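Format is sequence with structure; example below:
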Amino acid sequence: MPKRVGDGAATPSRDYHVVQIAGHRDYPLARQRLDAAIGPERYTLLEYEPTLADPLAACDLVLARAGGSVFELAAAGRPAILVPYPHATARHQDANAAWMSDAGAALVIDDSELDPGTLVRTVAGLFADGRRLERMAAASRALARPDAAKQIANEILEAART
C-alpha cells in the first residue's frame, strides 16, 4: 500500500498535506520515492509513531489498513478510507472495515482495487463534501468505547464472584 499512497499523493494540484507513517520496513523506500517526487511542504513521512493520538488529531481524513488501529480511529473520531489487508488472519480486517463502514464512519476500498486514480478520486470526493466528512467523523466517535477496559475489568470481576 505505501507505493500506491505515494503515487496518489504525488498527483499535482492537491490541496492537502499527507502524513504517512511508513513503518520501519517500508520507510527507506518510501523516503527515497517521496524525496524524488514530492516536496516536504505537501508530505510528511514518519518512520514510526509510538502513539497515534497526535497524528490522528491533526488529520481530517485517515487512509489505513483495518487492523486494531480502527479502534484508535474511533477513539479519535476520525473518518477513514480503509483498505483491509487481504491476507490478515481469518480476514479480521474485513470485519473491522465493515464495522466502521456499516456505521457510516469509513469507506472501504478492496486492496486489489487501490490505485493512485481511485485513491485521488475518493479523497477528492470526500474533501469536496465537508458535511459528509463531518457525518463520518460523528459516526466514528459514536463507535468509540473509551471505557472499554473498565467494562472488561468489571465483567471479569463479576465472573470471578460467581
Q: What stands out?
A: The chain has a mean pLDDT of 89. Residues 66 and 96 are 6 Å apart (CA to CA).
